[in-house]
Write a structure and sequence with these properties.
The longest helix has 17 residues. The protein contains 16 helices and 24 strands. The two termini are 26 Å apart. α12 packs antiparallel against α13. It has 543 residues and is of the alpha/beta class.
Length: 543
Amino acid sequence: MNNKWWHERIFYQIYPRSFKDTNGDGVGDIPGIISKLPYLKSLNVGAIWISPLYASPNFDNGYDISDYKAIHPEYGTMEDMERLLAQAKKLDIKIIMDLVINHTSFQHDWFLKSKDPKSEYHNYYFWRKGKISKKGKKLPPNNWQSMFTGSAWTYEPSNDMWYLHLFTREQPDLNYENPKVLEEVKSILRFWLDKGVAGFRCDVINLISKTSLKDGKKRVYKTGKEHYLNAPGCHLILKELNDEILEPYAAYTVGETMDITIDAAKDYLDGELTQVFAFDQVQVDYFLLPTFKRKYKPHRMVNALKKWQLKIPWNTVFYENHDLPRSVSRFGSKKYYKESVTALLASVLFLRGTPYIYQGQEIGMTNVDFGGIENIEDVSSRNVYNLLRKFKVPRKLAWRFVNNFTRDHGRSPVQWNDKKHAGFTTGKPWLMVNPNYTEINVEAQEIDQDSVLHHYRKMATLRQKTKAFKNGDLEFKKTHRDILAFTRTDDLNEYLVVINLASKARTHKLNLDGEVLYSNYQEFSDKAKKLRPFEVQIIKRLD
């Protein structure tokens, strides 16, 4: 394999709104990111993915962009952004931006102008005449559903037309059948690449092309998806962007690819995107929809990880991002908190691929007890709650369903210390801080040599200094179905990684002889034929 920089580095995602506030307005900002660059370097972070910093009315917290070439004033200025890029470069940390090009904000100048059917911007979006019911009621052009509940169409009285939005009504979808739209996107890419960003995380990128606007097959969720999910036009768009812009700049791209299969992923990795995010491993506790949970079974996680490792040469490896609840609260254990956090981190860091750590994951941040819908900011959570209540689902049950998946679990402010608001801000935080910040915070874990943070650093340092862990071969070992066991090898050395993902001891017949390089338990016996709950052993084979 021809190694590139993304094969070597640990990525760290920052959700800027919740990372670090420096001016007391309760919202994280770019100077806050700059202030924590040395901390990120101490985590062996080599690249940062930053969620949207662009100008936005924030109906979906920045994923509704009103100006792709401007910084939202809440986060700072373009000068701050340029300073961040310069400071990160000094520390050899690369920056990738979030690229949101399926839709814009409904306050984007393109959309405002597009309302006029005579405007050159009208065909930047999907404007269509609606239908009329037998009773004279205005109906949308088709039966597609929004990802955030309700119709994917909104009526605009000023032109008596409807516009398409696969997400909120404040996020109208762009129309790539119009070649001018693609030229606008190329201009955006050049703008940021010229400023020194190393690439882009591409939001819902496999939805950007629509094959038709016909009615979709009726489903509980995502009615219409056969007309836009992984459409052939999407591949044409991405190939053109890659050939004309991304490859000449040697830019890195990773695609958020909804409902992706292995075969479909291979298509995107063929001259279109550098990597994709597959979500099988973070859906093992879903029952049909994220709203409904089934009991977590560790073997399902092992199987999901193995499937992608065996079929895709170089994966992204992750459990958390800004759209997901915290991994330890889903796949870990309160009783074995430290052991389960470190077991999950070990699987991210030592499997083959590019590891992605989400802010706060390195200290084992957990889900938040929000108490009720009144403390939730996430638009999708509020929409689902309102829909459930519309169907007479009792308040407590509706809240329980929303609490299963709300994106705000992963968006609560980073817990820096045990001072007021966890050291995130001197003002009122935009979102509730997890009350457990007095026990789980960076400052306390810096002092405690047996903390999650110190265990993370040991593992990250081991990965970064060991050739086999960065880009060596991987082979899975047959063992108990709840145990993730594999070897990583280079030209000279072989290493065995054994991770029990269960909350109970599991027996095995593995040979654990060798030098123990890392363990998340203090005592270890290579003769033991049981792995303790969430036990991790990393062993260098000796000749």
